[in-house]
Design brief:
- InterPro entries: DUF4198 (IPR019613).
- This is Nickel transport complex, NikM subunit, transmembrane.
- Keywords: Signal.
- It comes from Chlorobium phaeobacteroides (strain BS1).
- By secondary structure, the chain is mainly beta.
- The chain has one domain (about 25-265): Immunoglobulin-like (Sandwich).
- About 5% of the residues lie in helices and about 50% in strands.
- It has one helix at about 5-20, and strands at about 30-35, 40, 45-55, 60, 70-75, 80, 85-90, 100-110, 115-120, 125, 130-145, 160, 170, 175-180, 185, 190-195, 210-215, 220-225, 230-245, 250-265.
- Strands 2, 5, 6, 9, 10, 11, 13, 16, 17, 19 and 20 form an eleven-stranded mixed sheet that branches.
- The structure holds copper (II) ion.
Length: about 270
Amino acid sequence: MRSVTSLRKSLTIALLAALSLIPAGSYAHFGMVIPSHDIVEKQEDASLFVNIMFAHPFEGQSMNMEKPVRAGVLSNGKKILFTDELKPLDLRMYADTKPSRAWRGHYTIARPGDHIFFMEPKPYWEPAEDSYIVHYTKVIVNAFGKEIGWDEEVGMKTEIIPLTRPYALYAGNVFQGVVNVDGKPAPFTEVEIEYFNRGGKSKAPAGPFVTQVVKADANGVFTCALPKAGWWGFAALSTDSRTILRDGKPKPVEIGAVLWIKAEDFR
Ligand SMILES: [Cu+2]
């Protein structure tokens, strides 16, 4: 039988080991779809690309991502998939020691209007959460002055429908969206918010600043201000009704509706 002291000692060691292995905020994953331009006004910008990644956007770490199940664009009421044409991309974010696998899609905008780029990833196994993660992610690109289509539904399992036009936002603007699950507003859903901290230039005063948190109201509507110019990601998180078997055991699936928007300063 072990003495209480040795038990306490081994518990302390286990706790310290656990704390050192899990970096603060390691739970805040974000699917990412970041376009080369979010507003297209010139013909030379119409041929754009989207980088598709899975990362901790503030802390500058990325995870290896399998090829998405689906990636495409919805514009003028038509959906075009470019999953098969996705190219692997070796991506290293500022805190990464080695690159991880991301994906890039190319698309040439031919007609004016809003273009919703979307992707559905393969379920990602996260041992720290004992759960799979699936982030249905989208971003909206406006083209050639026609501002129609940004509030359309792609029809993903879970999806943020913007109430605020999701482009040409100033830093300081307020942003609102509805969280949908299975096409219906999901009340009181938790929404995690992170800044895409490119190059690691921004510092968080303390751990909880890394990921901002708001909850949707009874109608599934969430509200957040954008305090700084740059890309901001919103991840509205729910638990899927399905489970996925891992080593014969059913594991929960965290589903996220992720939307990326860009704020700019006055010039
Ligand atoms: Cu991670």
